[in-house]
Design goal:
about 300 residues; alpha+beta; two-stranded antiparallel sheet; globular
């Protein structure tokens, strides 16, 4: 009878507990990183066969720790450097996502880059994504609203591009996304997309101040983010970085779960890209504290 009761208790807990309350294993590298990508990694960083696919870094300003030396990276480095005042919170992530085994024979770099550009420009797909709240110990909705708008002032809702050609027509000008979470007022972010011969990159900077019940928390340009995607026959290397200026008020609220929200964006990317067969499905934690310490970098003295 005790065994039966314990079994039902376990089942009950597994049903009720959100997935991030118990550790999730990181997918590991099934093959060696392609040489051209391994050579682009920063000194001391390696994604060896059999090791986890993800590395993260959290630090205050200074030189980026995980930025790979690939086409377009200077655009992202300059963006983050322009926002740095010596005390910004910077969160970085570097992840390699293996390709679908069956996709190798049909891989085309140029078309894959365009597909990634279209994927990143589907702003409305961010609405409703989840993140792990470290303070509440529950999964929460990250963006309750996310959609493309015409400009920061009028904020007229626009449709996302639905084809590669529509995406390509947007490259010559900035785009804007309206986002609303469960804590702060809505914010409009300026988005710029770039295609190089071997990468797709996107840079984001808030075009309107971040407000809490109408009170300014972060000024315009206080939140900057960069993404760089480098596809290869074997898989895709993704670099992500965000810089958050110390807020005028509500610092704890702004910084709360910032790393977990970065992981939420990686989950969104993995889900969207694998659904389009651009990569194979992969597993990463929702909770930054579940990532082994040896995979989380910090600057000396922090």
């Amino acid at each position: 009878m005790k065994i039966q009761t314990s079994l039902w208790t376990l089942v009950f807990l597994l049903i009720l507990l959100p997935p991030a309350t118990y550790a999730q294993k990181l997918t590991v590298m099934r093959d060696a990183l392609p040489v051209q990508l391994q050579d682009a990694l920063p000194p001391g960083i390696s994604l060896a066969q059999g090791s986890p696919i993800l590395r993260t870094a959290e630090h205050s300003s200074g030189k980026l720790m995980l930025a790979p030396s690939l086409d377009g990276i200077s655009t992202i480095v300059d963006l983050i450097a322009s926002a740095s005042n010596g005390s910004n919170l910077i969160i970085e992530a570097l992840i390699f996502l293996p390709a679908q085994p069956r996709a190798a024979s049909s891989f085309d770099l140029a078309s894959t880059l365009r597909e990634y550009g279209l994927l990143f420009n589907k702003f409305s797909s961010l609405q409703g994504i989840q993140y792990w709240s470290g303070s509440r110990k529950i999964m929460r909705t990250f963006y309750t609203a996310a959609y493309r708008v015409d400009n920061p002032k009028d904020q007229k809702q626009l449709q996302d591009p639905s084809t590669v050609d529509e995406f390509l027509s947007l490259l010559s000008q900035p785009s804007y996304i309206y986002q609303k979470d469960q804590t702060f007022d809505g914010i409009v972010t300026e988005v710029r997309s770039t295609l190089t011969a071997s990468t797709f990159l996107m840079t984001n900077s808030n075009a309107t101040p971040l407000r809490l019940i109408g009170i300014p928390v972060l000024p315009r340009g206080g939140l900057k983010t960069g993404f760089l995607v480098a596809p290869s026959l074997q898989g895709t290397l993704l670099y992500f970085v965000t810089s958050i200026k110390p807020p005028l008020i509500g610092k704890d609220r702004v910084f709360e779960s910032s790393s977990n929200k970065a992981l939420a964006l990686l989950h969104w990317f993995i889900g969207a890209a694998s659904a389009q067969n651009l990569i194979a499905p992969a597993t990463i934690p929702w909770n930054i504290d579940e990532i082994p310490s040896e995979l989380r970098l910090v600057k000396s003295g922090q």
